[in-house]
Design goal:
Blueprint: E1 2-7, H1 26-38, H2 42-51, H3 60-63, H4 66-69, H5 107-124, H6 129-149, H7 158-161, E2 166-169, E3 172-175, H8 176-192, H9 197-209, H10 213-216, H11 234-237, H12 245-260, H13 273-279, H14 286-306, H15 312-315, E4 316-321
Antiparallel strand pairs: 1-4, 2-3
The protein binds 2-acetamido-2-deoxy-beta-D-glucopyranose (4 copies).
Signal peptide: 1-23
GO molecular function: endonuclease activity; hydrolase activity, acting on ester bonds; metal ion binding; nucleic acid binding
InterPro entries: PLipase_C/P1_nuclease_dom_sf, S1/P1nuclease
């Protein structure tokens, strides 16, 4: 018997092919967008298509990698520090904690900003071409930051999120950050999915409705009010009940500590046991799970903005097929 996650109102399945699998980070971001697209309602999907330039064909997966491509542009300099959050005083794996406040600029802040911007234009409507372009940027950043936030090393400041933590990977040099951004995903697709990203995606959707199902139904539950203190975007975003970046970052930071940084050793080849632990059954196919979690949360927020009053937690249905 097959099980598939489906959303009552969402019928469109948009699975773009992934051509650029070797460009770092693109694959992960594309996959989060593809998962999200599966969980958009028809109405949300229609509005997303309206917001994005025709080039994107209404696909979140095509828009998701964009923020990495404009990092060098002066116009977007403000956004370059919004891809991650540093965690002062945090020294994984020995001591880990995240005590977040809204005084800085980081991925949490950025997500609130982008969500508030989307919500603002949803309420008032863009009037000028400039408004429309700000809105499109906000959507592209939103989708990207949701992916970044669910990569544990983007919530752990140590050695620049592992960028400066050398490792071995298939006997060549790498670093911990790159392994999480792309190398584990690529190897997993090669080893277990016949190098076919679409099978990898299909399996994630399938696992959402079986082995991950008990926890998956919780992924979109949270309480935004817990983190309202000093949150400059609270008033604009408080109606969005599935928006909880502080909570998510805190749990990703804990994962960075308990898993990503555990037994860090620059001489170890990370393509062996470590890869098995991160991608195999023993830990619930963790790497795939994080991608899926990011996509489902992304869709929940977009549905709340563009197709209220039904937040995701009331709409996901796990139905048996065939
Ligand atoms: C907020 O966080 C920053 C960075 O972690 C820290 O330097 C600052 O002291 C914190 N401010 C408050 C009021 O806690
Ligand atoms: C919020 O986003 C806008 C672009 O939409 C940007 O100009 C601004 O600097 C951001 N604010 C913060 C505090 O990051
Ligand atoms: C889901 O969330 C509820 C409420 O927070 C909690 O009691 C329950 O243990 C969670 N279930 C899983 C499988 O994580
Ligand atoms: C893999 O996980 C096991 C526990 O399940 C642990 O003992 C081992 O240290 C881990 N190996 C690596 C390389 O992370």
């Amino acid at each position: 018997m097959r099980f598939a996650a489906s959303l009552v109102a969402a019928t469109a399945v948009c699975l773009a092919t992934i051509n650029n699998a070797h460009a770092y980070g693109i694959l992960g971001h594309t996959l989060t967008g593809q998962v999200a697209q599966r969980f958009l309602t028809k109405e949300t999907e229609r509005q997303v298509k309206e917001i994005l330039s025709p080039y994107y064909d209404g696909l979140l997966s095509k828009a998701a990698p964009w923020p990495d491509t404009i990092k060098g542009q002066a116009k977007y300099r403000w956004a370059s520090i919004l891809h991650y959050v540093n965690t002062p005083g945090d020294d994984p794996p020995e001591t880990c904690h995240m005590e977040y406040n809204f005084s800085g600029k980081d991925v949490i802040n950025g997500l609130f900003n982008m969500t508030a911007t989307l919500k603002h234009y949803k309420v008032t409507g863009p009037t000028t071409p400039e408004d429309k372009s700000i809105r499109e940027d906000a959507l592209r950043f939103f989708v990207h930051f949701m992916g970044d936030l669910h990569q544990p090393l983007h919530t752990s400041g140590k050695l620049r999120g592992g960028n400066d933590a050398p490792t071995k990977w298939r006997r060549a040099k790498s670093n911990l950050h790159r392994i999480w951004d792309s190398q584990m995903i690529m190897k997993d697709i090669q080893d277990r999915y016949d190098n076919n990203p679409k099978s990898y995606l299909d399996d994630m959707l399938e696992m959402t409705s079986n082995i991950w199902q008990p926890e998956a139904s919780n992924w979109t539950f949270c309480d935004p009010a817990i983190f309202k203190v000093d949150n400059p975007w609270y008033d604009t975003t408080k109606d969005i009940k599935t928006l909880c970046p502080v909570e998510w970052a805190t749990s990703m930071n804990a994962l960075a500590c308990s898993f990503a940084w555990k037994d860090y050793d620059p001489l170890k080849d990370y393509s062996a046991d470590y890869f098995e632990n991160a991608t195999g059954q023993k830990n619930g196919y963790l790497v795939q799970k994080l991608i899926t979690m990011s996509g489902i949360r992304m869709a929940a927020i977009l549905n709340e903005i563009y197709d209220p009053p039904c937040p995701m937690q009331k709409r996901v249905q796990f139905v048996k097929q065939g």
